[in-house]
Design a protein that fits this description.
Helix content: 55-70%
CATH superfamily of the largest domain: Decaprenyl diphosphate synthase-like
Mean pLDDT: 84
Order of helices and strands: HEHHEHHEHEHHEHEHHH
Low-confidence stretches: none
CATH class of the largest domain: Alpha Beta
Strand order of the largest sheet: 3-4-2-1-5-6
Largest sheet: 6 strands, parallel
Shape: globular
CATH architecture of the largest domain: 3-Layer(aba) Sandwich
CATH topology of the largest domain: Undecaprenyl pyrophosphate synthetase
Number of strands: 6
């Protein structure tokens, strides 16, 4: 009876969360933390924690597809993970190989048009994993409905350092002029994977840090972050919906901040520039909820007299 009530409450809460959403992020990045701690908590082998975590990963892709999210990046194996015991590494590599090939052959992946790519120092991975990456990218590379980037042997600092070295080499060889180096140039030299900046980072397991993950695409974009206590195998759809609500609330706060900055501009300019400044404010005003828009208009109108 208790379990039935819990399931009923979970379903109601999930529907409430879903109805509260007015939009979704384009690009979600996930740090899947806590597989080993989950296994210890359950009193099972570490490998079982990773296996159950892989099932959560598959469920996450279904949720993203259902919500119309364009891009997902998963932190599957960092460069620091090479320091783990060999038995753990080999099991993770086996699991990654199995899941990549499973995704590549999955009808749901093909029906959803999922393009799967690996990002990171993939040449450091075992040959069997590299072969699985090649197979998966060949099978799904022509899709463009949902982009799935799997970060393998990935480290954000290593990515930026590699891009800096390649740019320096291009300048040194004369293929690139120093004055032409801009943000677009840097992006061309990063790992080929993410097609847009990260809007939301999710980390499970209780730690509140982003662990060297996508510093250019996430930190540079001031992505929203959602830290939660469930270990990755325990992560549920309601946790995912709560993360999206966090992103949504942050975006609303940013819209208000930008509109108020524009309002300050309107109040500060000379009359000769007032018309142009108010046009700037108008663009932000349209993006605000009605109650915020009315409050800002009350403050702006005196500046127009």
């Amino acid at each position: 009876m208790r379990e039935r009530l819990e399931r009923l409450g979970y379903g109601v809460y999930e529907r409430v969360l879903q109805r509260e959403l007015s939009g979704t992020p384009s690009h979600v990045a996930v740090i899947q933390d806590g597989n080993r701690r989950y296994a210890r908590k359950q009193g099972v082998e570490t490998n079982q924690g990773h296996s159950e975590g892989a099932e959560t990963t598959e469920a996450l892709l279904h949720w993203c597809d259902d919500l119309g999210i364009d891009e997902v990046t998963l932190y599957a194996f960092s460069t620091e993970n090479f320091d783990r015991p060999e038995e753990q590494r080999e099991y993770i590599f086996d699991l990654v190989e199995e899941k990549l090939r499973s995704f590549a052959d999955s009808d749901r992946v093909h029906d959803a048009g999922v393009c799967i790519r690996a990002i990171g120092e993939t040449d450091m991975l075992p040959e069997r994993v590299r072969d699985a990456i090649d197979y998966t990218e060949r099978r799904t590379g022509h899709y463009d409905r949902l982009n799935l980037n799997v970060a393998l042997a990935y480290g954000g600092r290593a990515e930026l350092l590699g891009a800096a070295r390649d740019i320096a080499d291009a300048v040194d060889s004369g293929d690139l002029h120093p004055g032409d180096v801009d943000s677009d140039t840097v992006e061309r030299y990063l790992y080929q994977g993410p097609t847009c900046d990260v809007d939301l980072i999710i980390r499970t397991g209780g730690d509140e840090r982003t662990s060297n993950f996508l510093p250019w695409h996430a930190n540079g974009n001031e992505a929203a972050t959602f830290f939660c206590t469930p270990y990755w195998p325990e992560f549920r759809k309601i946790d995912f919906l709560r993360a999206i609500r966090t992103y949504q609330n942050r975006e609303s706060s940013w819209r208000t901040t930008r509109a108020r900055r524009a309002m300050t501009l309107v109040q500060a300019v000379e009359d000769a520039d007032l018309s142009q400044a108010r046009q700037v404010l108008g663009r932000f005003r349209d993006a605000l909820p009605n109650n915020e828009r009315a409050a800002i208009e009350d403050e702006v109108e005196p500046a127009a007299d």
